[in-house]
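Lay summary. Proteins are chains of building blocks that fold into shapes, and those shapes determine what they do. In this project we predict the shape from the chain. Here is one chain we studied, written as its sequence of building blocks.
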Amino acid sequence: MNEITMKLVADKYIKLALQEDIQNEDISTNSVMPTYKKATVELLCKQDGIVAGLYVFERVFKILDENTKIEFFVKDGDNVKKGQLMAVVTGDARVLLSGERTALNYLQRMSGIATYTNRIVKLLEGAKTTLLDTRKTTPCMRIFEKYAVKIGGGSNHRYNLSDAVMLKDNHIQAAGGIKQAVAMARQYVSFVHKIEVEVENLEMVKEAVEAGADIIMLDNMTPQQMKEAVEIIGSKALTECSGNITVDNIKTIIDIGVDYVSSGALTHSAPILDISLKNLTVLD
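And here is the predicted shape, written in a compact code that computers can read:
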């Protein structure tokens, strides 16, 4: 997920968010600012972290009024500090007031994800394991949240159900077993698609290896079980571990040797980064 891809689809989601918030009109703003007045407002960081989502922040105001101007003093991926001036927004005061919450919702959420992701990435420094996100994202926010993971130094797992085959417990049960599920998937999908199998114990690990899975996900296993699983798999498949991985326990898997670790916490549990629009000044 990169900025170009995000830009292709961002506007439709931003418009939905604006429609959700404004609906018919912004009665608070229209009551105190009935006509055009040029104004500025400052984007201030209130907490140390990593910024992500500046393009989305800008698009909120540009969609409301393409004449809005924003002077940024930071870029996505920058470390920002409490009290830092990040940007100055200039335009119709009504636009600045009406777009404020939607713009900040995106920027705070995305920056929080980037910040949390980066904390885990730093804990994995020196390990062979790559940090991945999951599909545990906020509805209609996936494009933004997965972009934020990349800005924080993480990597993206599959974007959606069309990207890759991942055979989880219910798929395996529906097919009648791991061997059958992998065989059916091989027959159905193009050769360019890899097949990943989720396993919960060492017996399932052996079955997945024998079935020829490309990637084997070790789900909710203990560190000792994962070590044994990695030994069984060897070079026969890529390995991934998952299951309640957070910044608090990531160190327990560093020395296990898995290729990837996926964490839903990157997108469903990252706290926002505190950012505000302050000091609105009417110029004329």
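What the prediction tells us: The mean pLDDT is 96.
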